[in-house]
Specification:
Elements lengths: L1 H37 L2 H8 L40 H16 L3 E10 L4 H11 L4 E4 L1 H4 L3 H9 L3 E4 L6 H4 L3 H19 L5 E2 L11 H9 L3 E2 L4 E2 L10 H12 L4 E7 L7 H14 L2 E3 L15
Parallel strand pairs: 1-2, 1-7, 1-8, 2-3, 4-5, 6-7
Helix pairs in contact: 4-11, 10-11
Pfam families: Polysacc_deac_1
GO biological process, one term: carbohydrate metabolic process
GO molecular function, one term: hydrolase activity, acting on carbon-nitrogen (but not peptide) bonds
Length: 308
């Protein structure tokens, strides 16, 4: 009887120990589930990565070479960083892409300019400009403007700009001295202001600035409020008494091929009867080449040959 009781006691002890272990395992499992399900994601993440020896291999990101935002000679892009900016690589790359996009969108602009008018040719020029919806700049001889004031007023009404091309256009007189030039353009200024109601500040020297104006005189003219303009495309419509329209077109188209900014010289003076036909074909071809048309007051940096 004593032996049987002893055997029963040992059996109960083993059974109790077994259930204790099972209970303990179940309790631990419950705690783990509780932590995972009830803890915030940040806590779970921190608990899962607290072992510094458990790291994953990281493959470096390959950044492709950036495009070179090269520019045309007429376009100047700013530096990658503005004053005060840090050299953060992301900022630099973003600016490069922005400048590259800007450069792709650069517009070609043609500035049509007409010297030596007005004359009987001027209304035909104005008709074509209106037909083509293209603005232009007229550098007028003020003594002729007195004879054709309505042409000048019509040009202004159509949205064109009027510039000073002296009063007399007599080379020996206007270039005899700096003061003679100033006197002549001042006379022209007063005459044109009477016709159009405002002071025209755009100024083109007959024959251009090179060989005619000194830098000192140019500086004085600017101090008087004048804005000097030469050109970088010559239609050469004065190279013959009557230049064929097709030749004028060829001269202009050939010279504009490599330019984003084209300041084109024409003459609407007396006898230039081939100009209207040439002008229509020039405008049509430049439009096909993607040019926009503006007046010279929109040109940020005037083309002045003596400044180069």
């Amino acid at each position: 009887m004593i032996r049987e009781l002893s055997t029963l006691k040992r059996t109960i002890g083993r059974t109790a120990g077994f259930f204790s272990i099972v209970f303990l395992i179940a309790f631990i499992a419950f705690l783990i589930v509780d932590i995972v399900l009830l803890s915030p994601p940040e806590l779970v993440q921190s608990k899962l990565t607290t072992n510094p020896s458990l790291t994953l291999p990281i493959k470096p990101i390959e950044i492709p070479d950036q495009p070179d935002p090269s520019t045309d000679s007429a376009i100047v892009l700013g530096p990658d960083l503005e004053p005060g900016e840090t050299g953060n690589n992301n900022q630099v790359q973003e600016k490069k892409f922005a400048e590259a996009d800007k450069n792709k969108q650069v517009q070609k602009v043609a500035y049509l300019t007409f010297d030596d008018g007005p004359s009987d040719i001027t209304p035909y020029v104005l008709d074509i400009l209106r037909e083509q919806q293209v603005p232009a700049t007229f550098f007028v001889i003020a003594s002729l403007a007195q004879n054709y004031p309505d042409y000048i007023r019509r040009a202004v009404a159509d949205g064109h700009r009027i510039g000073n091309h002296t009063y007399s256009h007599k080379y020996r007189l206007i270039y005899s001295s700096p003061q003679a030039f100033i006197d002549d353009i001042s006379h022209a200024e007063a005459t044109l202001q009477t016709i159009i109601g405002y002071r025209p500040t755009l100024l083109r020297a007959p024959g251009g600035t090179v060989g005619n104006l000194s830098k000192t005189l140019a500086s004085e003219l600017r101090s008087m409020g004048f804005i000097l303009h030469d050109w970088n495309v010559d239609s050469k419509d004065t190279m013959a008494a009557l230049m064929p329209a097709e030749k004028i077109r060829e001269n202009v188209v050939e010279q504009t091929k490599s330019k984003h900014v084209a300041v084109i010289l024409f003459h609407d003076g007396p006898g230039k009867t081939t100009l209207p036909e040439a002008l229509r074909s020039v405008i049509t071809e430049l439009k096909q080449e993607g040019y926009q048309f503006k007046t010279l007051d929109h040109l940020y940096q005037p083309i002045v040959a003596i400044d180069r």
